[in-house]
Predict the structure.
Amino acid sequence: MQLKNRWAGLTLAAALGLGTAAFTSPLLGQAVESAAASRLRGDLAEVLRRAQPHDLIPVSIIMREQASRDEIARIRFAGDKAFQRQAMRDLLQPLAEQSQATILALLDQAAAAGAADRVQSLWIHNVIIARATPEVILTVAQRDDVAYVNHDAPRGIEVLPVLPGEGGTISEIECGVELMGAPRVWSEFGITGRGVVVGVIDTGCCLTHPDLRNQVWVNRGEIPNNNIDDDNNGFIDDINGWNFESNNNNVGDTFGHDTHVTGTVAGDGTNGTQTGMAPDALFMSLKFWNSFSGETSVWNSIQYGVNNGADVLTASLGWPHSTNPDRPTWRSVCENAMAAGVVVVFAAGNEGNCCRPTDAVRTPGDVPDMITVGATDCNDILASFSSIGPVTWQNIPPYNDWPYPPGKPKPTISAPGVNTKSTSNNCTGYTNLSGTSMATPHVAGAIALMLEANPALDHFAVKEILQATALDLGAPGRDNSFGAGRVDAYEAVAAAMGGGIPMRLQTSRFVAGVNADAEVFRATPGATVAFIYSTRGLGSTYIPQLDVTIDLNSPVLAGVRTADQDGYALLRKRVPANTQGVRVWMQAAEFQRKSNVVEQVIE
């Protein structure tokens, strides 16, 4: 009360150091107009115009200073996941602490006056989350250290699209689990996901379901119910995860979606049906803010998973582009989690081909490196609702890449998601649902099997193995309906067991008449690496000198380099003049090994 009384004679603008004039009508409207052009993102300007002075509006404050993408890339290719996770924390946390300090202090003062609440700092991307009055939001938006302020708009259940399944079929093994070969993995390899932690970002889970209760992740650093943050991670009694909707440790399912999803990842069949791909994996329950607003709570969930040991993060949710999600922040959050060594999987969405040519796949399934999952049925027929790519980032700064045409092909991969039987939030039985929400946990469970087989695999290695071993469906090669095809868990685990951490090719932009770099990571140290390109598209070409079949049609040798002691090789060559608009596919190969394919259009 003393603090509030101290502010009683001040306008909030004055208290926050903006001078003596409060943003009241008509000054509020003028301030909105002046800030709207560059700092108020999406519908926030209109929301502020309609708001009452004391309304608390949920926002995300995106800081101008962000970590260097070059530094993140160096960590991403470090090759040791424990190092990657710690290195990303060491890079991102101090940056957030230093750059956010002044604004956090201002928001704390505003909160004391009742003009803000729910203030949180994120470091996975340099963001502050809060609810605040229009006056406070405008105060913050006009600061030079703020890039923009985004309205974290209420979305409701539409971020979790599902379709009802049919009937209640009785089976010992769910059809998608059977089709993808998980039982063969269990029986032939003895691999069931042991030791792998899958963070499930969803509506909360029924932890007592007989098929799930033995797979619940437990935070060993916390003493239950002592109301103390024993492990000093910022969350009190976060025994099994965290509820970012209510900001507590109650991760119970209030909607039914999560329990079904989690059952497809890790259900062990105790109650009669084997629903889970990885029945001995552990699941970390991360409940996002579905009933109020969601974007920031999912970012928070991703940060929690990275910070608390999740090996995989899976989320059967996404934002249609029509809802104006904060795509740059989504991409940074997801790419930073990947760079930390965590495998990140999101659903493509249930829009089918609604929004062609480039807007059917939801955010963040549209993130270029995301493992984005489309849906088939158990006869390997594409689900009519499965969102079809491609996507583009050509008008999304600071990225401005993947111009359309052709755009970035999506989805990455497909899995069964039609009439999927899995655990029910009645905490005892099963239910059938359909959607890419159901396909995504099939893939997350397959990844858990791969990581038990080879814990060294990171997001990019997992993605490449999934694509290389998938059953090709639809048009030959990778397409915008099935991606690389339907996941074959048996072949993917077999490849992972072979020690395969695939070599990776990365290129700079190809600009006519300008030098371009092609870099290979994870080659065999000392190996001869051939850089090969084609303007004739994908194909299958055997290279006898390397005893390897590459994925290009009519390939041409661009150059040869020797990998250094870290498995790194660089080819730098000038792109021929007068080639603007030519589409190029490039791949690297060494003896019996090949990289991913990079596709570019010369600018």
